Amino acid sequence: MHHWTSLAAAVALLANGAVGQNMLRFACSQLVVDRVDPLVNPGVRYTPHLHQIVGGDSFNLTMEPVQYDLAKRSKCTSCSFVQDKSNYWTAVMFFKHKNGSYHRVPQVGNGGPQGRLINDGGLDVYYIPSGRVTAFKPGFRMLAGNAANTDDSKVARGNICHRCWTSTNDNNFIGGAPCTGDDTVGIPQDPKCKMIRQTIIFPTCWDGKNLDSPDHKSHVAYGQGSGANGGGTCPSSHPVKLPQVMYELMWNVTNFADRNMWPSSGPAFVYSMNLGGSAAHGDYVFGWEGDSLQRAMDNGCNLNRDCPAAGLTSQPPEKYNACKIKQQAPEPVDGWLKAMPMGEMAIKA
């Protein structure tokens, strides 16, 4: 087992009380698993593929930018910071059985030097500053990745990657910093993997004008370099430095290790677009209360701890785990399914 470097080393130092780069790192449990996407397919039920959504419970089919105030409309959040009513979502990973049926791969919390973050599904969210950053504005939204991409070479491995985790203990970190070493764009297809860690890193540079763009990408850009380092120098077209948002997911593939279950050809693990890691993507809609995120960045708030200087309060797992909403496109998403939820409503196998 190798030791973490870069970001993980910084987290380890912080957890041990050493001076280092402060960053928010906190758990978000599953709010719902649903075939809706208010960013790419607003107002549509049974969108082309399934997502797992976390964050504020005001998540809806259609959330008009600015007018739809997530922070005011949400009564609870499935994230550990009470003040964060943002919504974060990703595609869902499925295991394909050799008999043609599919099973959704569950997610688990991710541990580390600060101790395990407890999730009921969902993911861990990072906000990593690099120097002085400008927090997102109400109505801000963005997309990382391309849900239709089938070419691994078109993905920057330093921003979207997967890691085979050979331990069932999420506290036994394996490998270096996110999206380094043996990490791959593709989903690992190896029965030795007990968990698969997925990392999605968002752009850190903003044009300073547009809260969104038609492709949900053009108003932001990646800085020089890549990786979980807060982002590099911004281009002149996008001069405003943002906090680096990173999603970290642990897909628990332990129950699918029996090679006798695997298909004779093709991948065993795919995302809900029926595509591989090249199509991995993440959606982000900002919804922090007031200027709490800006104050968190300015005051060096750290990990998932209360931060009085910014008015941040962290709620216990039993509180954020209890924040749920009903599917807005009702269909079965658990157990063995005859097909992945695509097109018409899914049915049980």
Structure description:
This is DUF1996 domain-containing protein. It is built from four helices and 18 strands. It is mainly β. It has one domain (about 5-15, about 25-335). Strands 1, 7, 8, 10, 11 and 15 form a six-stranded antiparallel β-sheet that branches. Strands 2-3-4-17-9 form a five-stranded antiparallel β-sheet, with no helix packed on it. A hairpin with a 5-residue loop joins strand 5 and strand 6 (about 100-105).
The outline comes out as globular
| Radius of gyration from the alpha-carbon trace, in angstroms | 19 Å
How many domains? 1
Helical residue percent?
A: under 10%
- Structural class label: mainly beta
Count up the helices.
Answer: 4
Order of helices and strands: HEEEHEEEEEEEEEEEEEEHHE
Beta content comes to: 15-25%
State the major sheet: 6 strands, antiparallel
**What is the mean pLDDT?**
91
Number of strands: 18
Runs in which pLDDT lies below 50 for 5 or more consecutive residues are: 1-19
Measured between the Cα atoms of the first and last residue, the distance is 40 Å
